[in-house]
Amino acid sequence: MKQFTDPKLTNSASPGAGETNVNSCVHVQELRNEVMLASLFDAHLDERSVRTASTQSPEGDPANLDLQLTGSGVIRSIWAAGAEIEDGTGLIKIWIDGEAQPRVNCSVRQFFFSTAYRVGAFLEDQHGRTKLAGYRMTPIPFHTSIRIMIDCHFSNVVYNYSSTVDFDYGRYNQFHFDTKTFSGAGTYALLDVSGKKGALYGLYYDMRGSDGMLEGDTEFTADGVWNGQSGTEDLFFCSYYFEDLFDYPTKTVNLTKWPNLHSAEAGITDFHQHGTVNSDNQWGMYRYFRKHPVVWDSTFALRWLPQSLFPNPSTLNVALVYYTAS
After folding, report:
1. What is the rounded CA–CA span in Å between residue 16 and residue 50?
2. FRET partner for 130 with CA separation of 20 to 30 A, picked from 94, 109, 117, 144?
3. Which residues of the chain are modeled with pLDDT < 70?
């Protein structure tokens, strides 16, 4: 497996072969209150000794990407391409600040909030998918080191890096990416955080079953206070079992309607009809909370609850992006 290392960087250094030095003149806003959390997520760097660069595994080399950085910085984007994304065999692991267990350990396809049944290409500001490729733009801060391993034919990582200056990400400076699988009856415990301030950044449901499962609710409880719940498709800014995607009575997907059902904040990415109409469908749905952050001071619980007259999903795969205080 190939290893990529970052050279020492100084203010006066000139770019070497294949290197790029970029002076950033954008500002990191101080996080003064919870409402400004979105500015944190969209933050860049002030003018310092920083470098923006990309690293890509060589064409034709199946050894893939093993990127290791020491110092402090922020991963800005991760892109990968190859059949491994489409078939789900490509994996991504990310270790932050020397931790023994990776913060990210899942398929690259899941990291890009997608399943095997992508309806069409979508290119949004946080994530996207095209044929055999995908990307994620979610900021991943690190303070002493980071290691990113991607098992795909092509990989590319863009980052801001400084060997001398730590990055101030306010109170929410620890990145988390959790994946879980649920099946059977009952309530699903999607996320539990205790003893840390935090903020929910985004979530993804890969849900399979009869359409009645969409009657289930997602429930938010922060610091012991119930913060409401939302019907499944309502949480993703859709309604009536996503019927705007289909032609009736056959309920076949109409790709001309596809661009209207995903945006920067929410939408659907995937659909597959495994059985007869309404009986066994699989959905991929995403939601981001950058503009309307879900925050907590000490505890947070996220649940999916079925409605009594409707079935649970046969399977629910969940991916969650959130930040906590160090």
Report:
1. 15
2. 94
3. 1-63, 160-171, 251
